[in-house]
Amino acid sequence: MLHARFFSLEVCQYCVESSVFPTAPFPCYTKQRRTENDWALTPELDPYFLDLIRYGKTKQNLKRDEWLRVFDVPKRCFWHFYAVSVCWNGFLLTLYLDSTFRHQPLPSWLTGMLDMLSGAGGADSQAPQLSTLLVQLLLWLHSLRRLLECLCVSVFSDGAMHVLQYVFGLGYYIVLGLTVIGSDHGGIGAGSLLSQLSWFHVAGFGFFVAASLLQHQSLVLLARLRTGKSGSVETLAHRLPTGGWFELVSCPHYFSELLIYISLALVYGGRSLTWWLVVLYVLFNQALAAQLCHELYISKYESYPRHRKAFIPFVF
Ligand SMILES: NC(=O)c1ccc[n+]([C@@H]2O[C@H](COP(=O)([O-])OP(=O)(O)OC[C@H]3O[C@@H](n4cnc5c(N)ncnc54)[C@H](OP(=O)(O)O)[C@@H]3O)[C@@H](O)[C@H]2O)c1
């Protein structure tokens, strides 16, 4: 409706002209707000479930029983996930390099785990795969960058996550590393690593770099909302993000996370079904987080840009 366009004005022109103001101040505003809430994802969900899926700023105003706070882990502990990932995936990368270049067999405990995960035998019988090596390396670089961003760039408030989210986050990068090395089962490359090099390795790598730069820029912009020109922290409040891809979506850092995982699917030549399942998980997980954040911004800032989507520019 046309009058919805006046949403950000103090007094809607439509209401003034249709003389419902001032007896019913801002009726179109109320109507518009109700419309926003109509597609809100969670208002009717169980508070215990909400406690499990929300974290950080989208959890702060959640009405929940006081005892549930015993399960809270500070969100500033996010760096633990990446520290675990850097160590574990660095270790797996070293083992894979060793097996590739020094022809050392993968340790039996690892092949046993991989066989168990994949339900097939012969985890060490494949020729070394360039795709596997490259994805391992990029995953490790991604974890290292995120670790450094958590420790040196991001400014965390006293937000919290559920202890189950914390445990899941720790386990996630361990299983992810095994998934990558286990993807050798479906590998098609034969011969030397260099002879396996294909256009999709180069394209996937380029895509990975671009998506990583976008994520880094977005996280820097978020950090700048809390720091002054000198870099010192001035506030821990949540403010309205602007600049960069924040002009298009509420959460470009979540969107770029999805792009990073898609870029790794490309490094596999698009042929790893397992990795596409990982991409699907990241899509749903990050879309949910983006939607919750988007709803929060809309409810908090009356002047929130109406063209801004939650997650995917121009789409969603
Ligand atoms: N692959 C996965 O499954 C997965 C899962 C989760 C996250 N991630 C990735 O990890 C990265 C961080 O995720 P996240 O959920 O922690 O992001 P986030 O909630 O947006 O937080 C990122 C940083 O920005 C701060 N911040 C957020 N909104 C702000 C605002 N409006 N004003 C000022 N500061 C603000 C946060 O502080 P607070 O302490 O106040 O929150 C935190 O320091 C993302 O790139 C995401 O894609 C990946």
Automatic annotation (TrEMBL):
Q: What class of enzyme is it?
A: oxidoreductase
- Catalytic activity annotated for this protein? a 3-oxo-5alpha-steroid + NADP(+) = a 3-oxo-Delta(4)-steroid + NADPH + H(+); androst-4-ene-3,17-dione + NADPH + H(+) = 5alpha-androstan-3,17-dione + NADP(+); 17beta-hydroxy-5alpha-androstan-3-one + NADP(+) = testosterone + NADPH + H(+); a di-trans,poly-cis-dolichal + NADP(+) = a di-trans,poly-cis-polyprenal + NADPH + H(+)
Protein name, UniProt field? Polyprenal reductase
Its annotated compartments are: Endoplasmic reticulum membrane
Family label: Belongs to the steroid 5-alpha reductase family. Polyprenal reductase subfamily.
Domain 3-oxo-5-alpha-steroid 4-dehydrogenase C-terminal as annotated: residue spans: 199-316
Please give the PANTHER family that the UniProt record associates with this protein. Answer: DFG10 PROTEIN, POLYPRENOL REDUCTASE
What does this chain do? Plays a key role in early steps of protein N-linked glycosylation by being involved in the conversion of polyprenol into dolichol. Acts as a polyprenal reductase that mediates the reduction of polyprenal into dolichal in a NADP-dependent mechanism. Dolichols are required for the synthesis of dolichol-linked monosaccharides and the oligosaccharide precursor used for N-glycosylation. Also able to convert testosterone (T) into 5-alpha-dihydrotestosterone (DHT).
Give the species. Answer: Pleuronectes platessa
- Which InterPro entries has this protein been placed in? 3-oxo-5_a-steroid_4-DH_C, Dfg10/SRD5A3
